[in-house]
Amino acid sequence: MLVAWGKNTYIKKLERKHVDEMQNWGAHQDPLFYSYTFPKMNRHERDYWYCKKSYTLSRKCFVIYNQQHRLVGYIALREIKWLRRSSEFGIVFDPNFIDQGLGTDSLKSFISYYFEKMRMKKLILRVADFNYRAQRCYQNCGFKISKVEFNEFEDQNLPIFKDDKLRRAEVFFRYERGVLKCKFIHMYITREMYLQQRHIYPHNPPNTCA
What we know:
Aminopeptidase, 9 strands, acyltransferase activity, transferring groups other than amino-acyl groups
């Protein structure tokens, strides 16, 4: 089901067949982003992954396509609080399609859908301090910083203080009681903020019948 569209992307609700398409995604080459690589799974594992993501009231998932109808990204709304009309945003892209402006294009259209169609009031996220590309995307889409703090990192096996190739990123990490933590920037956007800067979220007619 098509829910939103930008100039170069369109967004659909996650279906089981989409998980199969995501198995064709590439892998991140930078160790800092290994945990963002979509895992290879057998059919049973894909069935389980889809059910876990789809059949819960506190989560909604979507996929992003480019103009060539290639599935290039995945969006998750987590910790949805329906009474407060808020949730936490997460997005992952096929590494083969980053640095093409697709993240900003799709996120701007999704924000419109989120506040206009879903009638939500607030969207929050967190981004690793070393992920400059994602930070620029979120800032361009109207998000503001709420706080900066160290949180548990997804990849607890990252050899951050042992691999010379990662020395450049050591400043973003530290251990606390045996737990690897990363410096994260927490950001947010509200419905009021969206309405005040609505001109940056262009509404475009669908360029696909998919």
